[in-house]
Amino acid sequence: MQRALVGGLLTGTLGGLLGSIAVLRQLSFFSDALGHSALLGITLGILIGVNPMLVLIPFAIVFALLINQLVERSSLPTDALLNIVYSSSLAAAILALSRIETYRGGIRQLLFGDILGISQLDLIIVTILLIIATIYLVMSLRAQVLLTLNADLAGAVGVNIKIHRLAFIVLLAVVVAVSIKAVGVLLISAFVVIPACAGRLLCRRFPIYILSSAILGGSCALLGLLASGLTNLPSGPSVVMVQFMGFITALVLSSNRFKRKEDASQELSQTPDVNLNDP
Amino acid sequence: MLSPVLMASGLCVERSGRLAVDDVSFALEAESDTALVGPNGAGKSTLVAALLGLLPRKSGNVEILGHCLTADGRLPRSIRAQIAYVPQSLALQGLFPISVKEFVGFGFDPPGPRFPWKGHRKRQQSVEQALQRTDCVDLRSKLLSELSGGQLKRVMLSFCVVRPRKLLVLDEAQAGLDFPSNERFQQLLLDLRRQEGWTVLHVSHDLDMVRRSSDQVLGLNRRLCCSGCPDHTLTPERLQELYGPNMVPYRHHCSG
């Protein structure tokens, strides 16, 4: 259980960290598509008789790059393309898994996660990944912000758009792949999206936003796993429900703050010397 | 005589499989203001993107501050640091958690990876000065997504002026601004250009403003149809050649 808690904490922190950028760059659905498609990677591993988790990371990277190419080259809307890709790969994976006698019982764990299945090696991989992701995001903070705001602006002031886009997508794919065991393919995108959205509601400074997304991700995962252990419920859904409660709390806090701000601006507008119509 | 800040020769650029910019050559003299005008779909934004190295060129050369832009759009970092760009808009959906002060600070940092806390004090000083010079001090703690169109454009100028630059490129930066905001932005740009010695290239549809403020006009409709000083370029004949026979140009009474 101790290893599971550490694994959950690290995975949640990693999801919140990368989610903070993914949400701003409108990649939420991309992470969902990656998560669902990961089942196909696991199936491939089972079919060729290799540890599915070893196949999953290279599969996720290649798959992410292929989706990226498809989105860039196609004239169809991105959400429609991602829907086609993930539903097709999910269907193919479930069909293949239903033919493999030995894995029928394991589908539930793949879909909803099994945090107790986290090994020492998984912990080491997630720790290394968390260090790499933190260093990369800190060093490229300017590039990430400008790229999110306007790619041409970023390129004009010297950001290597192609490299940073690819680096982030690869990092996101690897994080999704290594988190599958704990969270499951159906709920992985919640790990990326919910803490970041809660952070976005609460923060007004960019580094604080990234930090709070990561902290929210880690702490919700920890609380969810504890709840899962106490109630004997599946780990993935338990964590997501705690994340959802965190999001609702952030929503309430932010609307209270917004209301206070509106009241203050109404008071100001009654003061004749203040010009609120500044263009 | 100062050497040109930007030179393009025989520039051809393809976009979506068609030639969007065909054999365009021109030079921007130091500290000059050049307007790029032409109808929608004429290739203005494509040309700007190619000049900045954001789009690959089919053929031709671009030289910025004496350095050739490589085929894959690279320039030495020291040259990139002297270029600023003001786009039409920023992607600010919903609450974008970045304050004006933070955004302008990113304009101060040179290109390349670095720890954000490096040179923090100098950055803060430069940001404060830039905000003062663009009349944005009151906006420093606001989120970018909370700004009006006019405020956002002034903040973009803070981003440009926060470090010394030589070349400023604006792609329809005044689009969507009402008349007072546009006038205020234009005056601020003019003042900063004079103070900083910027060479400015701007895409514009406001021919009256171009006539008043630019030293040189480039009329683009896939090819360079006309170029020269505004009085010689923005003539009814030239404009009809550029925009088509239905173009009926007239001057605002107030602009003389």
Keywords:
heterodimer, A: 279 residues, mainly alpha, ABC transporter involved in vitamin B12 uptake, BtuC, 0% strand, disordered C terminus, B: 256 residues, alpha/beta, Rossmann fold, 2 domains, 6-stranded mixed β-sheet, 4-stranded antiparallel β-sheet, 9 helices, 23% strand
What does this structure look like?
The complex is a heterodimer of chains A (279) and B (256). Chain A has helices at residues 2-24, 28-47, 52-73, 78-99, 107-112, 120-139, 141-149, 151-156, 161-183, 188-202, 206-231, 235-269. With 279 residues, chain A is mainly α. Chain A has a single domain, classed as Orthogonal Bundle (ABC transporter involved in vitamin B12 uptake, BtuC), CATH 1.10.3470. Chain A is globular. The model of chain A is unreliable at 271-279 (pLDDT under 50). Chain B has 256 residues and is α/β, with parallel strands linked by helices. In chain B, 33% of the residues lie in helices and 23% in strands. Chain B has helices at residues 44-51, 77-80, 100-108, 120-133, 149-161, 179-196, 207-213, 230-233, 236-243; strands at 6-15, 18-28, 33-37, 59-64, 67-68, 83-86, 167-171, 199-203, 216-221, 223-228. Classes of the chains: A mainly alpha (279), B alpha/beta (256). At the A-B interface, α7, α8, α10 and α11 of A face β6, α3, α5 and α6 of B.
